[in-house]
């Protein structure tokens, strides 16, 4: 005699699982499209930015550099991407300082700001920030560099003017007045003394 087994419940469960699988695939596809659009928007903004933008992975390898890096450093993005920070074609002192700064951001998970003179002769104000994964661990580092050469020139000019003003203010006005009066009136004025 044969056995009859009711598989209705199993077929219903399989059908439900298939619906969930299809729905999950649709969700993954939609999220992938959103991420692609988001990545393209970021890239468009980064490519058009006047500020240099670089990204480094946990191994200190540059994984992205926008075109502005060439204006600020004289080095094309192609010569930077894929290289360890200590292999970048930049001044050795700055290589070590950059490595140290990025290492600090990886370790502490906090942004830092530095200013430096690039090999191209431009003053760069750089902000180095951590990018976190979903677990809160630093995944990559972004560095944004802005040319502040004109600001530095203005600051230097203001500093020189303030220094000059300080020197002028240190001259005793009474002595200047006496010298002017003695030169104008000659020895006759010398017998009169001004008491400050």
**Strand order across the largest sheet:** 2-1-5-4-3
The helix content is: 40-55%
Q: How many strands, what sense, and barrel or not for the largest sheet?
A: 5 strands, antiparallel
Please state the structural category: alpha+beta
List low-confidence stretches: none
Q: Give helix and strand order, one letter per element, not per position.
A: HEEHHEEEHHH
**Strand runs, count:** 5
Number of helices: 6
Q: What's the alpha carbon Rg, rounded to whole Å?
A: 34 Å
Mean pLDDT across all amino acids: 83
Quick overview:
The chain has helices at about 10-50, 70-75, 90-110, 150-170, 175-185, 185-190; strands spanning about 50-55, 60-65, 110-115, 125-130, 140-145. It is an alpha+beta fold. The radius of gyration is 34 Å and the shape is elongated.
